[in-house]
Every structure is written in structure tokens, then in C-alpha cells.
## 1
Amino acid sequence: MLHPSVRITTVLFLTAALVAGCRDEDVVARVGRTELRRADVEAFASQRAPDSGDTQAQLEALIDRARLAEQAEAQGLDDRPGLRARLAAARREVLAQALLEEQLKDATQEQALRARFASSKEALSRRELHVRHIMLRLPQGADEAEKRRARDRANLLYAHLLGGASFEQVARESSQDEATAPRGGDLGRVLEGQVHPSFFEAAAALKKDEVSKPFETPYGLHIVQALAPVETRVPSFEEARGRLAAQSRREAEDRLMKDLRERVSVERFPQALRPLEATPPDAGSRVGEESR
């Protein structure tokens, strides 16, 4: 027969083993009443800088935040209306984003995007230019006198070009576009949508080697020379992937929201949005009396 002390030790050992065996292996720490799981550590780490330490350091930092949260609950801070609203907003945003990711994941699958690309090549095509330009800046809020001086300067440069001056030389000496002036004004190949529409259309109207008259855009005054005829370019699938994915996701989200608006009922109470200062001084007491 076992000695009583031996029996007690055995029971305690078996109890401890049973508890250890029943513990959820996904739980990495228990802070007060809060259980922290692997997913909690991963979510916490994803919100921090990449060099915030190893997994153990991340866990210790999370434990400290859990200690603070436990104390906040102990002090009843989570019962404050403002804090309840913030907690509800965070939960709402996380759930909304989770639903969007779940419902829209098929919209950006490789096969779906390639099918979309094949059916929309013509719509994806864009005109392409190769031009060089001379730009004179117009100061923000320039008055008429300043604008007139800039226009006179542009007309003078244009006259020099018509007289046989080298476009590249004039651009190097006079263009105020610091990026292209050292290259003789060469902008390289420009796709439609990459520059202001008024600039693109004026340049697209030129024949090869033709020089435009000075024209104005929100960025200043320009003189443009076409270096090649306008071409229509169809992007590769890889170039168009981001645009296709954004379009597909937006359309799928629109369909989802249309379905939810039809299925999920909403009751609005616009009077509750009235600013507090719009409420008469004695209205609060009357409302309180009516509610009793």
C-alpha cells in the first residue's frame, strides 16, 4: 500500500500531465484571462517593422500589450462609449476586409486576368510618342505681365527654330525642364496618359521632325518636336496585369455591394446626426423626461 504522501504526489503529477495533455497546442501564452495564439503573434508581427526582432521578441512585446489590455478592461475602459465605438470600428473594418478578400479572390486569379486581357487588347492599347520639348515655366499665380513676358520669350525661341537653329541646342540653353534640357529636350517614348492630355494631343498632331508653335499647359509653355510618327502600342500581359486586376476587383466589389444592398436591410435615423449645438438648451431635459 502506497504511503499517503506518495499517493498525493502521484495524483498531482497525473493531474498536471492531464492538464498539459489537454492544453490547446495553438496557445502560446496566457496573460491573465487572455489566451494568445500563434495567429495572434503573426498578426501582431505583421503590423510592426520587419526588424522588430525574432518570434520570441515579438511574443514578449505582444504579452506586454495584452497586459495593458487586461488592465484596461479591469478598469472598465472598454465600457466608455468612445472606446466601444473604436473597438466596434476596428472589428467592423477587419471583418469587411476579410469578406472582400474572400469574395474577390477569384477576380484576380491568373486565368481570369489572362481571359480579360485577351478580350480587351484593343481597349488597352494606347498611342505612343517620341518627342523632345522646350519648356518655359509659368510661376503659380503669375499675373498677365509675367505671362506675356513668358509668351514673348517662347515666340522668340520658336522664331530661332524656324530660322534654322538646332532644337537640341536651344533646348539645352533655354528649356527650364531640368530633367530633359541636358538631353536636348528629349522626353523619350511617352504613352498616352503619362503626360497632360493637352500636351499629348498637341504633340500627336505633329508629323515626324515637325516643330509645334508654342502652346500652354498647366506646367508652362512648350515647344515640341516630333522625333517619330505616332504609334499605337498594345501592352504585354505583364505590363497590363496591375490595371486588369484593379478593374476586375473593382467590378467584383461593385457586384458584391449591389447584392448586399438588395439583401441586407438598413434603417436610418438621420435625426440622430444632428449636431449637439443645434439642440435647444432645454431639449435634453425634455428628451430625458419623455424617455422615462
Note: The CA atoms of residues 106 and 112 lie 8 Å apart.
## 2
Amino acid sequence: MSLHRTELGESGPRVVFCHGLFGQGKNWTQAAKALSADHRVVLLDMPNHGRSPWTESFDFLELADLVAAELGDEPVALVGHSMGGKIAMCLALRHPELVERLVVVDIAPAAYESGREFVGYIETMRGLDLESLESRGEAEAALEEAVPNRVVRSFLLQNLRRTDDGWHWQINLDLLGEEMAALVGWPGEELGDASYDGPVLWVGGARSDYISDDYAPEMDRRFPRNRRVLVKDAGHWVHSEQPEVFLEVLRRFLP
């Protein structure tokens, strides 16, 4: 399986970005363009998202191995948000020789209680009548009641594509809905005592509850050389809500 990628920049250290649930590699375009003057940047579509192939099951370790296969032999700076952050953490723990340093954006090495909000989005997207749909504007109007936040609605609708035979979701909604327990989980037992001793930066949103003091012991055990930054006036999508601050924090950490 080969993942869809976008590459920017011709020289400098390599930086690879992994997006979160419902996202695509292009979500990182603003940061990637800013870094491309002195870095070689790779934006990957995660499996079951964007233009990358679909898998038959959802397993963070398997997904991490698929991303690892895309990296080659040269160690990279690996950046992951949310679901992509968990994939990036698993990759660093399983293939530390491939990761020169790690940036984890608003997620912890932990199992979360519920993915109810995500399930609701999936059910809403699956409920859209694609056969009768005539325009993207019509799709947005159909989602408005269930997803009142315009930013979130636009984010979800980036997964909607029109081809010669009609409208389609690029994202694997059926699998992600069925595997939500695995998606919000964390493969701690399968990882055993694995740890990663490279430098790690956690970037959290001050208005988000995805990173809390409760998760600090596991963060420190798995990633002993970590430091943490909380970005003011940002929630879960730190890099979208405070792009300039996020980029500055990232630049200071990258080689």
C-alpha cells in the first residue's frame, strides 16, 4: 500500500506531517509552505482518508507501520495531530530509528472515554443522500442542522468529491464508524514497555481537554525527553485556530 503524498521544498531537513480524523494532508499546507524554504516537507494522507487507500481494519500499530514504510531510511521530524498524533507516537515507539524528533499536537498516549461526537459526524455524513445531491452548497445546507459550526462543517465537507459517476465520500466512513472504540483507544498493552528517547514536543490547545495532567505519567514514561507548550485561545485544532503561533513554536523545535 502506498499513501498519497504532497511534497514541498527542495533542501534542508525532512519534516513529515500526519493529519487527524476527517482530515487530509493538505490541512497542513499553510505550515508546509512556510517551512518549505529551508525544509523538505511531506504531507501524507493517512490510510482511509483523502486519496490514500482504505484498510480492512483500524489498528494504530498497523497504521504506524504503513506510514513508516513511506519514510525511507533518512530519519525525519514527524508531526502528528490527534489521530495522526497517535499514529506518529506509535511509529516513534516501534521504529525509533526513523524519527529524529517528534511533535504531537493535542493528543496524549491514552484511551479516551468516548468518540460520541465523532460518531455523530459520521452518522450525519453517511445520512447524506449522495444520489440526489446536485451541488456542494446543497450538501452544506443538508448538514447545517446536525453540524451548526460552519468551520467544522466545511472541514467535514472537504471529504466530499464529485466524479463522472456522481458524489462520493473519500473517507472510509463505514470502517471508522465501526472501529470508533479502537480509534479513541490506545494500544498500550501491545506496545509493551516501548519508549522513545528522542526529543518530543507536545503542542496543546489551552481550551482543549485532550491533554491533561492525568496523562503526564504515561507521556513521561513513553517519551522521557518531552516538553509541553499550551497555546492560548486554541482548542483541539491548534494549527488551524492559531496558525502563526503554532508555526513559531514548531520552527523553534525543528532542526
Note: The two ends are 30 Å apart (CA to CA).
## 3
Amino acid sequence: MNAQLHTIDQGEGPPVLLVHGFPMDHTMWRFQIESLAASHRVIAPDLRGFGQSPIESISSKIGVAMADYADDLARLLDKLAVEEPVTLVGFSMGGYISWQFYKRHRQRLRAMIQCDTKAAADTPQARETRFKMAEHVEGWGAAHVATLMVPKLLAPSTLQGNTKLVEEIGGMISRTDPVAIAAAQRGMAHREDSTPLLESLDLPVLYVVGQDDQISTTSEMQTMADATPDGRLVTIPNAGHLSPIENPTAVTAAMEEFLASLSS
């Protein structure tokens, strides 16, 4: 099914495709968009049902597979006439989608940047938690999801010292349609283990992780980088899971250094 994706398309140069996480939208990349667009064509969509992208193509009971989101992105590149291979930047769920994009659309990739994400599938407990949220979110409302998630997404220093950002993240999650939340949770719960893929990745991959990430830990992402033939890890200080927002200066600098290395 074709999904119409609301998209920011800004700047000129080698294309960079920014794929947001769950349950967010393209605005999580606002700091990176502004900086990277000075030297790159930056494409930042809202995934189907998130942000300003329509919800009509989604069933909360069936869910949206990570492969379906990946195919949406490939169709978006077609629509935007992007013929040059892209650097795909995936945050959290965007990273899960990136693995599927690699498997299904390898020819469209120049490199990958994987932020605060995993290659492994969910544990049985994590899968059950996703199914519970998918089942009840329409009754709970998205604001309840924000209450549950925000403390896990941010570093203690952010939670205690940046009230404005805490409120902003809560607001972004609260505005998300519960149908999109349920569908994404089912898709993530059913995703396959991508760990065996790492050793066969035949392109440069930068892994980025917040030092205080409770969800995608530094040790887990170091293991992923070590398993990737051309992989490297950058740890971001003063950041939890939401490193691109918590410490945007450091994350953007890491991205820019990596992108510059692709041209050297």
C-alpha cells in the first residue's frame, strides 16, 4: 500500500535520509536538518501515521512491518527523483527500518548512521510489553504513553535540568495518533533478529549512542560496531536514548565528520 509521507526536503548535495524513531516525527531531527543542509540534500519524512503523514493506510490490529516502512522510504526517494545513493540515518525504530532497507534496497545506500538502536529482536518480555501497549493505547491515549516513555528516553541530567526539553518530548509523543502507536508497536514486536546481518554489511556504518542510554546501551552498540566490517562507534556525553535532541551539537558533529569521510 502506498503511503503519502509528509517530508522536509532541504539543501543540495549528497542526499541524507533521516528516519525518526517511535513515537515521534521528523522534528526530532531539527538541529541536524539545519546544519547538514548547508552541504547535503537532507530528506526528513514523517513515517506513515506519524507527525503530519496520514493515518488512513494503517490498521492498528495488523500493524506495520519494518519492511513496509522501508518500502515507503524507497517509494519516497522515487517520488523525489533521488537517484544518487543516500546515507540513511536511523534513530531507534528508524534503525530497525534501516536494516530492512539495506536488505531490500541495498543499491540505494551509500552509507548508514545508526543512532541509539538495536540489531537484536525483542526479548519475550519486551515483545509482550509492546503487545500490551498496542492493545490498550487507544483507550489510554497518547499522553499516557508519553508519561510511560519519557523517563526512559532521557538521561537523568536531562530529566532534572532541562524541563523545556522534557515537556517538548512529552508533547511530541502526546500528539501522536494512537493508531500509529499501536501499529508500530506490533511491527516492532514482530521484527526479526538482524544481528546476523552485521558481519555482511558492505558499506560504512557509523553507530551513535548516548552515554546514558538505558534502551540501546553503549556496550550493546559497541558489540554491533565491532561486528560490522566498516563500523565505528561514537558515544555522546550528556545524553540518554534521545541523543540527537539531548546533545545535538555532539551528534551533528559526529555525523558531519562521518559524511566528510565518505567524500575523502
Note: Residues 124-140 form the longest helix (17 residues).
## 4
Amino acid sequence: MTAAPAELVFITGASSGIGQALALRYYRDGARLALVARRTDEVQRWAAEQALDPARFRIYGADVADLDAMARIGRECIAAQGLPDVVIANAGISVGMDTTQFADLDVMRRTFATNNVGLAATFHPFVAAMNERGSGTLVGIASVAAIRGLPGHGAYCASKAAVVAYCESLRGECRPFGVRVVTLLPGYIDTPLTRGNRYGMPFLMPVEAFADQAVRAIRAQVSYRVIPWQMGVLAKLLRLLPNGLYDRALAGRPRKKRASE
């Protein structure tokens, strides 16, 4: 009897940070990988450093905001490796914005193109086939920043709130077919994305620890999980604060760096 192929996990944003940590965690568990990134050379270098078996991974070059490219690599993945068991839409950007600045309107446009349209484009090539198969897990990486808006983070907070709402909608659409949708909300995770922040980051978590907890949550098929849990508690408390108190608490807090900074 021929053994079933190992689990196939498709991950965007695989050139650094959370994407790489998730890839390594799954690889060590025996999974095969489909890794998507704009900087394919970075992924190839990392894979060589980690001594990954070339037979167990494949790299696809694309910007998730490029709809045609994402549809193409989805087809390529299915043809070359099969239909994934898990698809993780991890690629995202975080840039500060100031609505008084005309140039920052483009920051919002680019943020939504990557964090939201790119997330849907990541799932699109696989949803119908997963529904037909009757199994699969789609994972949207949101952020604890989705829970309350932060001054100077308008584009990022809004985009991640949209990730939560979109995944909730998709979950209801896919559930009758046996396909699960998992929404993960990282708190502050030690990655290149957060190292430039100029404000305190409570409960900062090593990226490897995040990956361990994230994979457990995905395998448990939880619908929604904040990691680490302490950030989830803090976010809920902030959600309960009256607007006036919340606004005063954040007054004077350093803001996310803008593109021009």
C-alpha cells in the first residue's frame, strides 16, 4: 500500500519573521512546504542555512497583491505538489500613516492591497478544490491591533480588523464543506516588522514561541486565537475602556514610523 503524502502547508510572507518560523515548525513536524515570497533569494538562502531537504519544499515568487500572479502560483502549486492541507495567509505590511499627509493615502491603499486583497488572493486558488475535497484549513494572520485602533496606525489597524471580519465571513461559507478557517491575532512578536518600533511592546514574544502556539491552534482548528494569551486579556480590557479614557491613555504615545521616516 502506498503511503499518503506528507501534509502540505502553503505559506505566504516566507522570507522572514513569522512566515519563516511557521515554515520551520511545520518542516520539523514532517510537513512539505510551499513557500511564497517576493524575495525568493532570501527564502533560498534561509532554506540552505536550515539544511532543508529540497524534495520537501518549493519556492514561488510573487507579490500577494498581484492577483494574476497569485492565481498562477496557486495552479502551479496544485500541479507540482498537490492541493495544500493548510494555507497560511501571512504576508503583510505595517507602516505608520498620517491622514493629513496626501502621500500617506497611498500607504493605506498599499496596506489594504497586501493585507486584505492579498489575503483573499492567497486563499482563492484553493477554496473551491478544498470544498470539493471536504477538508483543509485556511489561516488568516490578523493582529491584536485589530481590536482597538492606535493613533498613527490607522492603515494597519483598519486592515487587520478587516482580516478578522473577512475570515469570519469565510468561515461561515466554508464550514458546510468541512473546510476550517482559523484567525490568529499575534501580539508583539520579535520579528523585523516590530524591531523598528519606538514604543514599549508588552508581552513581546520570541517568534519561535509564537510559531509553536500558532501551529497548535491551527491543528486544533480553533476559530480565533490571540497569541500570547496575555495580550488577548489586555486587548479585551482596552476594548472595555470608555473612549474618553482610552484616548487619554494613548495621548502622547510614540507613533509607528511613516514611510518618509
Note: The helical segments are 17-28, 40-49, 67-81, 103-133, 154-174, 207-219, 229-240, 243-250.
